[in-house]
Amino acid sequence: MVTGTHSGRADVVELELEYEDGTVEQRAVELPLDIGRSPACGLQVAAWRVGKRHARIAQGPDGPFIDDLGALSGTSVNGRRISHYGPLLPGDEIVIGPCLMRVRRCQESHPPSRTEGALNAKSVADDAGPTSAINSSAADPPALDELNRRLPHRKRLQRELLKALDLRRRDVVMLSDSALRNEACQVMTDIIHNDPDLPVDMDRSTLLAEVVDEAVGLGPLEPLLADVTITEIMVNRHDEIFVESGGCIHRHPSGFSSEQAVLGVIERIISPLGRRIDESSPMVDARLQDGSRVNAVIPPVALRGASLTIRKFPVRRPSMHDLVEVGALAPFMREFLAVCVKQRKNIIVSGGTGSGKTTLLNVLSNCIPEGERIVTIEDAAELKLDHAHLVTLEARPPNLEGRGAIQIRDLVRNALRMRPDRIVVGECRGGEAFDMLAAMNTGHEGSLTTLHANSPRDALARLETMILMAGMDLPLAAVREHIAASIDLIVQQVRSSDGRRYIDAIVEVCGMESGRIQLQPLFSYEAGPVPAFVGCGVMPDFFARDGGGFANLDASMFGLRHEIPSTRTSFEPMAGQGSA
Hints:
Mean pLDDT: 80
Shape: elongated
Number of strands: 27
Strand content: 25-35%
Low-confidence stretches: 1-10, 108-138, 567-580
Distance between the termini: 59 Å
């Protein structure tokens, strides 16, 4: 029972506590009330995301208010993170860690209006700096308000759906995805039709789709994956999703109903691949059925809750012609690279994260002549090559006992015994770089790979470091000679601030001189009011050695200039999708 004074000040507040596991309880609490995981708190919430003293509810002149006490995961009221909020009114929803607290009764003689309560709320963005302010304002506020309005109903209906389907004991393996979804839709339609607690103006079809997607699919990710304009999806926590569209990142007005829902989606993605994620192995790389790359991180590594990043891949992979059309390279650069691949030149594609390395590697690989045997080696299979004679190998993480791991380096060594004409490694990150270069230098010319680097010179430095990581007791001079003898070309890929992805430079590796690997720029990108790709006026040295294979190339291309029309300066999503 709630007690209060004639002045409108409440000494006791009734709360409904709902946890992520579905547990619901009613509790009347006396004020002031400390909330946290410490046993000394009046309301103990034992979870790793909750601080020892996380928040405090106390009396104010107009009624009860809540203060966040500086906990890392923060306190949210009605879907917005706060540092101070009050007065609390019946219907307000407080989220602390895994616990949703609904204010049920709060007697006041002069209850303040919702407008006054909103004016008294201070966003945590005022104290957290500009980043939080940008994040909170990036999404459409009406859409977020509607999402927050549906959230408690989604949680309740999902529990009813799971109970009706009895998914925890049902052998869902025997049902196809479409059959399971159809059955869930039928059950959910009946539940919604007979639910007396749903507001009359709430969109039933939207609610049904959200609940079914989260129960048997990928939840709010389903429409985002279907949207061809979205190239990347970033789930920072269960109620915070950002997307990249047209090269720009913004918050999307959607979210999961709980932390457990995110973990369920991650499990649905990685289970068919034979991978695992738990506290002992809290990070995983995987892929969706369409090849889109997935990275997931869960607590205790992810402090704010499970995080999920999906880099989408297009249904139709871009070709060389597509890259020229969007201004990623010039026509003469396309012609040069295609001939170099056919003439079995060893090529490294370097660039930063999201710069388009994997897209370009895939395009270059499709220039390999038909009939040659190709072996691709990747951490998570992403390359899609249009070749009949193709073997695809994928690394494997350790099992529950920490055994059975298959590293990329093991696969490169094994590939040498598979009679390959070409070896394509998705990315060199460690000791496999030595084995890859050894293959390039011992009869497997024309091999391709990528690595992370900001410039061609940095790419060479990274290769040196990775070879030393392989545990080879070699002097640096020998390592550099090995690199110089193995690599013919370095193609530098760049992602600009406006989202464009393009080739910044094509550089030839010309051997050693005075203990230093020599690089010779062949083509480069010129920024300016009218950006352009230009030839550097120098022909590659391997023209003299392999002149016959390059006889059909026009030598004048090395002095050409190709301006990028203004209509192409905005990079199209297709060429950016699937970028490394």
